[in-house]
Design brief:
homodimer; Rossmann fold; N-(1-d-carboxylethyl)-l-norvaline Dehydrogenase, domain 2
């Protein structure tokens, strides 16, 4: 049985707690957080603490906390023998610099409160300073039905950037679609099959190769009609810039 | 049995031909195209013609052709008694102005060659100048497992615009993610679960309400790190503009 102390109570911590609880090989022995309030929902399932002095001995100390808390919190675990991990996409392994055994266990997924991430195969980006620990992290990822990847701090930083494009920015484009529907008395559900198909298509076709639309085919009549139809200046700027980007990615002479 | 002449041989025509063929109530009696070459793949399944004079009598003339061809092609069908339809998101009903019975049958979906659109429930945006014909189009959509919506030309134009945001532009953001993976020796598959979950989330949560990421939480440290990490000027401009757009949509004082 691998014993884990989980530090943090946000969406990632909550997901990991649930996933570890379902696994047969991993036991979360304690959940730490600096404030008691958000700990309360774990209280009837596991030992909790708000004090770093009271953190129990374990095989792994897994920090799912805000990026800027990581260096200090890991510093308070230097007297521990276990492996100290963080779960951040943006923070390098060296931010855990006071620990002899340290690593990264970054789930490349978006987690929301009140939403079960039903899918499995979440990619886990793994990095350790002690080579033998990589195997342990691979097993940990696989035990919770994740897919392990060995990813350096530099690669992980770039993946985190890519995630902003394909998740946060994509979601904002969905929000613009939702807004256009609202303004025109149309239900947003009318766009949902298109959104799903566009996402599913990339599972078997390179998005660069499967690009379609007025920008790709240099359809200047439609582009002009669209620009005239956009009410908000900001959306107009987004339309122009992304149209231009598609055209330059697909070799139009500008 | 509803008899249809299909005009056009592109991705939409091909999808509709396949869908009608599976339906028990609809028979495609002929496929027309101006060039013979692209007609050849229909030749062993249905009568084909390259001449508008040879177009057969039918209940419905369904044009799945390029937008700019619609007015002229529909003009050549004025002597026909059936209902003349186009399938375009951007062209108004009035572009079919020489026909007494005319309508729009616009599938709001992206269709690609060599890719079966396995999903059903494709939204069909319907519009007719004769009210009784709307019922016919509803049945037509439902016969091929689509979901019918009554949508005016003005609404349809806005939907077509929204589709560019949630499909074409989203796909370009996927392509940027793919490019970042390539530049950093990472497989694109590592981003796929995130892309799927981001798309699936909108099925039960408003994208405006579920926005996450550094822009939403005004995390200026991460935003700066990301901007420094972006190689291409165009991607940097996209990052800046979409970050700003998310912040302004979520009420940050700029």
């Amino acid at each position: 049985m691998i014993k884990i102390v989980l530090l943090g109570t946000g969406n990632v911590a909550e997901f990991l707690f649930g996933a570890f609880s379902e696994s047969g090989r991993i036991q979360v022995v304690q959940v730490y957080n600096h404030s008691l309030k958000s700990l309360s929902r774990f209280a009837d399932q596991v030992e909790i603490t708000t004090s770093v002095e009271n953190i129990k001995d374990a095989d792994i100390y897994l920090m799912a906390v805000k990026d800027d808390v990581i260096p200090e919190l890991s510093g308070s675990l230097t007297n521990k023998k276990g492996l100290v991990l963080h779960t951040s996409g943006a923070v390098s392994l060296d931010a855990l610099n006071s620990n002899s055994r340290r690593g990264v266990f970054y789930p490349l997924q978006t987690f929301s409160k009140n939403r079960e991430v039903i899918q499995r195969n979440i990619p886990f980006c793994l990095e350790t300073n002690v080579p033998e620990d990589l195997e342990l992290l691979k097993n940990l990822a696989e035990d919770i039905k994740g897919t392990p990847y060995s990813v350096s701090s530099e690669q992980r930083k770039k993946l985190h950037l890519a995630a902003v494009f394909v998740c946060n920015f994509v979601n904002h484009l969905y929000a613009i679609g939702e807004q256009i529907c609202k303004e025109n008395a149309l239900p947003f559900e009318i766009l949902q099959p298109l959104i799903q198909e566009t996402a599913e298509k990339i599972l078997d076709t390179s998005p660069h190769e499967s690009q379609t639309g007025p920008a790709k085919r240099n359809d200047s009549t439609t582009i002009k009609t669209h620009l005239d139809a956009i009410v908000e200046e900001e959306n107009k700027a987004i339309y122009k810039l992304l149209t231009q980007a598609i055209q330059s990615a697909h070799g139009k002479e500008l």
